[in-house]
From TrEMBL:
<dbReference type="GO" id="GO:0019806">
    <property type="term" value="F:bromide peroxidase activity"/>
</dbReference>
<dbReference type="InterPro" id="IPR029058">
    <property type="entry name" value="AB_hydrolase_fold"/>
</dbReference>
<dbReference type="Pfam" id="PF00561">
    <property type="entry name" value="Abhydrolase_1"/>
</dbReference>
<keyword id="KW-0472">Membrane</keyword>
<dbReference type="InterPro" id="IPR050471">
    <property type="entry name" value="AB_hydrolase"/>
</dbReference>
<feature type="transmembrane region" description="Helical">
    <location>
        <begin position="7"/>
        <end position="27"/>
    </location>
</feature>
<feature type="domain" description="AB hydrolase-1">
    <location>
        <begin position="89"/>
        <end position="319"/>
    </location>
</feature>
<dbReference type="InterPro" id="IPR000073">
    <property type="entry name" value="AB_hydrolase_1"/>
</dbReference>
<keyword id="KW-1133">Transmembrane helix</keyword>
<keyword id="KW-0575">Peroxidase</keyword>
<protein>
    <submittedName>
        <fullName>Non-heme bromoperoxidase BpoC</fullName>
        <ecNumber>1.11.1.18</ecNumber>
    </submittedName>
</protein>
<keyword id="KW-0812">Transmembrane</keyword>
<keyword id="KW-0560">Oxidoreductase</keyword>
Amino acid sequence: MKGEPSFFGQILVAIAIITMAGLTGFITGQKLQISNSISASGQVESISNNESTLPDSNSESVSIDKVNTKKVIVGDIEMAYKTFGRGEPIILISGSGNVMDVWPSHFLNELAKSHKVTIFDNRGVGNSTEGTKPFSVRQFANDTVGLMNALGIQKADVLGFSMGSFVAQQLVITYPEKINRLVLYGSSCGGHEGIPQNPKVISILTDFVNNRTKDASAFLEVTFPLQWIKENPNFLESIPKTSETILSSTVKKQFEINEHWLSTYWSGICDLLQKVTKPSLIITGIEDEAVPSGNSLILVDKIPGSWLVQIEGAGHGLMYQYPKTFTEIVETFLNVSETIR
């Protein structure tokens, strides 16, 4: 087994990018205010995007790659993590194929001004060991709670991205007492009520993950809207660099978990979300093909009082394309929901 090069980890970050010709916010049950625009319950608010160019990830004030990595025993694994910032705790759960260092620097820096941020490598990824237990969304949720307990975190805000958002849903269902507020980005509640991936997308991802093709262009077009790629030919330079690696076998296991979750061959957890009482935000790019954006409408319908923000012209990689806008959306939700709890 060998570790994948960091470039693969950057590309497989596929669950986070937002091409934005404009940003449309749909809010259910609460109010959202961004850049002095307020969208009341049931209304649609267009929010202008001022990010005309991609920021240089290496020019940010703090490089996450320079924050010390710590390790702690969680069940059958040694879990690698980083903590930084001050304030209420927030846990960020990475997507499939992602190491913890690939979160956008701008997002982490801004979040750390008012939160104690914890990021970590899922089992078998980066500097975390694989352990002996089978990979599953439920196991990843157990690992996350185990990390919180090991660090003495009684309760936290939780943000999950792609596969990480599946884990976050399992967390709020199984361990609601550990969740303060919930953010689901690029998400689906899966199963027969969910909207599955296009067969062509499944084929592209399957070929790429199983090394049946060396051409990353098709994979990138699943992650980012084609027009946005054409307008931003150097966009990979904006994704944080990392020395962490991922075993090919781990990538395949995570991919299988994703594909099962998004398939219609199981019951999913959509109906279980009706019992969620935590303030919740769902974020999606309207052009997301990795996790079809229509799933966000199902999520907001299932989770009582949840918020929904859809980014017009955005794909799965929203947070890399428009890190400032993504950050502003998340911070607005956290700040406003704090005042109404």
